[in-house]
Every structure is written in C-alpha cells, then in structure tokens.
Amino acid sequence: MTDDAKRLERGIRNCNPLNIVYARGNYWIGKYSNNTDGKFEQFLRIEFGIRAAIIILTRYAMRKEVGLYVPAIIHRWAPDGGEAEQNYIKFVTNKMAKLNMNRTRMDLKQLVSAMALFESRYTMSDFVFEKSFNIVPLNYRKFWI
Length: 145
Fold this sequence. Notes:
Blueprint (H helix, E strand, L loop, with lengths): L2 H5 L2 H4 L32 H17 L7 H8 L5 H14 L8 H16 L5 H8 L4 H4 L4
C-alpha cells in the first residue's frame, strides 16, 4: 500500500464509506473476494459500497421497530448505546435537519451522505448516489418514492 493510500480514510480505501462490517456470508455485488481488511467489507468501487449501504438502510426502514426515525436507524447501524452513538445521531440529524425521514430518494440521499461523512469523511456527489441507487435491486428502490 502506498503512503497516499495509507492516509486515506479506511472506508474510502475499502470503497465502503459507511463502514459496513465484514461478514463472510454476505455476497454483495462488487465485493472483494479476498478481504484484506478483516473488520470491514471491501468493494471494487465506491458505488458498490454505497449500494450495499442503501440495501441495508432500506431493510431497516422497512422494519416497524426502526422505520424512518433517524435515531433508530443510527442505533441499528452502530448500536454502541453510549456517547459515540449519541454523537453519531446528533451529527446525522443536524446534517439532515430532521429526526423523521420521508420515503423519498432525497431523504435517503441525505441520510447516506451524512453517514458517509461521519464514518469516513467522504463527501458523496449526486452522481455517485444516483449511480449507486440505480444498481440497487428494484424491490428496494421502489420503497423510496
């Protein structure tokens, strides 16, 4: 790994800006077949990492106990229960300027963008979000109006 690559945030190096935890049984499209990180998933391109995050976040939003309430989504994503989780919730809700989301692509984009910024200091462009969203399976895309 070059010195420049070492300086990049881990989530950006892994093309996984929301730091999805590695699981051997997850067969994500675009996932590296030989994970060298050990803790977090590694993807071939950033769009695949964001795609995976969108699928997971959509599954959370579809659950009644989580729904579209941003603090519940963050708690499910990073269930620390302590100050770190509260800082995460505060950061994301401040960026989104809301606690409750609507089932819109815009709200999903704001959520993913704020989480990527918190997790990896990654600033997601509209182009990258749209490219990622468009490779999400239709049954998940249809959830977002």
